[in-house]
Amino acid sequence: MGFLTIIAYVAVSFFLGSVFIGLSLNLFDINYAVHYFKQEIMPDPFLRWAIFLSGLLIILLCLRYLQRTIFRRERSVVTESSYGKVSITLFAIEDMLKNMLETQNGLSHVRSRIICRKHGIEVIIRGNLSADANLPIFTKEVQEKTREKLQNLLGEDKEIKIKIEIRKMVFKGKKKIIESTEEISEPEIPYRYY
């Protein structure tokens, strides 16, 4: 959902909620509001245009939101073979890539995201990298393996762009310290979980 849509929904919801609460608690009189609207706002053409354009903007944002939610395309990749169509969901492809990349040495906490574009598929791989890995060689290997796996799965006709985002560099020295503290176990206290 776009930023303007969110702002419009929040503003309209806040305004209508305040009006309904005020009316139910008799904080203001509806006749006074109607009188003010007729006497002050309606004669001024600039304010009338501003109200018209605000209303039109809110309606357009609501229609855009409905268009995105109701007419949303299925998140899948469709390939055609001589026997028929094959549809593979993006979630299945993301899960397959995650399982493949977690077995890769030097890469941990892997998350993949696949975005279907008109001209092909964009793959975003996020994860932590061990500090002793050679970054250019390692990323090239990951990109080649990912491209090969996706081309075997989807076919050669799809253009595949692979982006790798390294979130954190993991140092082995700190990891060993954490592992050594985990090995020390506290004695079990009787009836602890009762």
Could you characterize the architecture of this molecule?
Strand 3 (107-116) and strand 4 (121-130) form a beta hairpin. The chain has 2 domains: 3-70, no CATH class; 76-173, ANL, C-terminal domain (GMP Synthetase, Chain A, domain 3, 2-Layer Sandwich), CATH 3.30.300. 54% of the residues lie in helices and 22% in strands. It is of the alpha+beta class. It has helices at residues 3-24, 30-41, 45-70, 90-102, 135-154, 172-183, and strands at 76-81, 84-89, 107-116, 121-130, 160-170. The longest helix has 26 residues, at 45-70. The strands form 2 sheets. It has a 3-stranded mixed β-sheet. It has a two-stranded antiparallel ribbon with strand order 1-2. The protein contains 6 helices and 5 strands, in the order αααββαββαβα.
Q: How do you describe this structure in short?
A:
The strands form two sheets. This protein has a three-stranded mixed beta sheet with strand order 3-4-5. A two-stranded antiparallel ribbon has the order 1-2.
CATH architecture of the largest domain: 2-Layer Sandwich
Secondary-structure element string: HHHEEHEEHEH
Shape: elongated
Gyration radius, to the nearest Å? 29 Å
Number of helices: 6
| Alpha-carbon distance between the two ends | 47 Å
The total of beta strands comes to 5
Could you describe the largest sheet, including whether it forms a barrel? 3 strands, mixed
CATH topology of the largest domain: GMP Synthetase, Chain A, domain 3
CATH class of the largest domain: Alpha Beta
**Overall helicity:** 40-55%
Name the CATH superfamily classification of the largest domain.
ANL, C-terminal domain
**Biggest sheet, spatial arrangement of strands:** 3-4-5
